[in-house]
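Sequence in, structure out. Go.
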Amino acid sequence: MALESGTRLGPYRISAQIGVGGMGEVYRATDTNLSREVAVKILPEAVANDADRLARFDREAKTLATLSHPRIAGIYGLEKSAGRMALVMELVEGPTLADRIAQGPIPVEEALGLAIQIAEGLEAAHEKGIVHRDLKPANIKVTPDGVVKVLDFGLAKVFERESSGAIDATHSPTLSMAATQAGVILGTAAYMSPEQAKGRPTDRRTDIWAFGCVLFEMLAGRQSFGAPDVTEVLAAVVRAEPDWKSLPKGLPPRLREVLERCLEKEQGRRFRDIGDVRADLERVVTQLRDGTVEGPATSAVHVRSRPPWQLAAAAVIVAVVAGAAAWVLKPAPVSETLPVVRFEHLLEAARQFRNTELPVVAISPDGRHVVYNTNEGLFLRALDSRASRVVPGTENIGGMTNVMYSPDGEWVGYWDGAANEFMKISVNGGIPVRVADADGVLDGASWAPDDRILFATGQRVSIVSADGGEPETLFEVPTEMGFPILPTLLPGGDVLFSLFATPNQIAVWSVESDEVHVLTAGSGATYVPTGHLVYGIDASLYAQPFDLDGLTLRGGPVPILDGVLTDIVSQYAVSGAGSLVYVPGDVQLTRELALGIVERDGTVSALDMPPGAYSSPRASPDGERVAVQTTNATPYQSAIGTVWIYDLSGDTAMRPLAQGGANQHPIWTPDGERVTFGSDRDGTWGIYWQPADGSGVAERLTTAEPGARHWPESWSPDGRTLTYQVLTGDDLDVWTLSLDAPDRPTPLIDGNARQHGSILSPDGRWIAYGSTENLPAEQIFVQPFPPTGVEYQVTQDTAAFPVWAPDGSALSYRRAVSNAAGEQAAALFQVDVVRDGARFSWRNERRLPIGGFQAFGGLRDYDILPDGRFLMVFPLRPAGSDELPPPRIDVVLNWFEELLARVPVD
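Output:
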């Protein structure tokens, strides 16, 4: 019997039934705790009344709940109420793919766009070992804006009865339902793989078969194995071929081949990896867009990973790359008659550059077009035009960074930080094409002349085909040298890159010796065809002649340009044709920031402080002072890594506390007497503390291992225990240090989970932190302190940087949300903390009425004052203006003329 509107299942209030299927009844419901709409699936009695299967369901559902991907409808939790077992899921609006197909065949390009999204969801699940087993159009939703969401992911496995023998196909989730549901039975049978139909063991290739059935049906408007009853359907699945003639005429041969390989009846002849299917479909999209449809494709070639000792193999691989690079980047004569021309390109007032830690601007190889990354998407401008246009398909990609041009100028590559993968898109717009996953935090990438992408993660520099495939490690940088940033390929196959160290350095990897050599101080180096190395130091560009054969610099560094926006890298790009584009630092205000106090109603009161590159503000325990850091050079403050103290009364000017080197992440001791901070002032990273009044000297508390960094995070209420972050390459870990045993620091949690942003509760009994523990995205966790092994996951959506209320009654954290235009912005959320003896629980998650604050990825740019108000960093806006002044891109045509005149090569 269907549930009536208003029925309560725990905190969920049923609104209406929205579906009935073999896996249960589905209802729209309201989560009264979080005030959000959800889908609630009431599970079949066969599951609810079977203790063994119920226990298995509980285990499997917890695994499925870790599967977070934009193409998969998420699982929020299990609810056991009134004798019912219910699965709480993301509510996805829009019709199913079955509804769309019922209207007729889907045009080829639209079908490809939907199929690629389905494949992305399958790929994400398969990588976690989760197989759908019941993929069909009825289990795929298409939202009104064309986004695919796969439903019931992995539940077929959950519903199977465990057995040591073969799987019985009649016990699939829909075939086991009552005979009165013939339509449901028939619907599932049409997508079952031959091995399922025969009752044999299944694996991810079962999903690939079902995917082929779905794609066929989208194109043909009819099932690939349709028949009047389930017996005939299964017989057709095992013995018959689809009606290939029902496919549209003129279907690209490669697409027909993909379908045939998906629907191979023998598992061994079928595609083994859905990622290969996706890559082939993306090639078809490219061919259709470019009008270069080819004949049947050959199988994708994957480059195997190279062990570090296989130098000879690496030399062969890089030699292939170098062959293409040599003729593109070889020094060429420059005409003496070309005039040097300068002009500006102003961004519209509503647009701002975003994600400036990596390149935001790129110039086409022929020097005719510029593309740049803004809060409204990628914009393209022809340099012979005054107008710019958005690249269609990039408008809502908030995590985009590291913009780069393809060698032929037809594609733009970028890193999608939200999806954690490399993407490329035609300069004319369209569907973004996935290239590869970087398997770690990206530290810069470049597109090589032979159509491969070099990128850095952790200590590794890797390379991958721009057509997709398995990345291959070229080399690793020793930990004690720092970690590599923004690698680029040199003619000859060697690799130029920066080292994130103290100070930053320019280095080169020799393919012949397989060794890394440091060239000079600086970052963001580029080799240009004039024979120069161009690189940044602070906000200036320098140039030196560079010997490609000996991999050595000649002469000394010559400053050639001042006032370039510099974050981790300098924001400039050079074309092989001799044009320079750069973002000036004097007009870019996204790092010119102010501190403000936010009232409970969201009202902001700016503090009387000069604007600067502020981050990590921390209120003193008495609420009368602020410790804050500034980083990088700005028009207002040239010191790098300074910790400041500011009196909130405004009676005195802010004063520097810690200078010299990079001084970062200040926190107060509980008595307010000292400020603790991380620093490399003595050449090695460690944690120091210093009297807040400026008296005395800084004393070292920890010393990091070579290549690692230490940053303080939280003190215990008694001031005897410090939690701090240890950053080593890609690894983030929280450690604790007791002042009673300073020589014996210990990790907070053993294992491979990334943790950071730790903070102890006001009573010292609990510790909150962000972690990716077996999860695809960071979440907030809480556990007892000292740790007992018990751990509570507070959030289900991506969240970071928890902060306790002064009395411990609430926990706040930062989350990325989308606004009405689909842009990503930072927001604060809060839950109430229920203190019940030794148990920790929470309730009433809500978004706080605070917006517009600055949020840098790896820093907590807010704090809570003792009276409960928030202290936050905000972008600076000019007096009397609601908008930031428009930033700009400066363009220098025929720049090589000027470069050669100022820095002769001979």
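Check: Residues 108-127 form the longest helix (20 residues). The chain has a mean pLDDT of 80.
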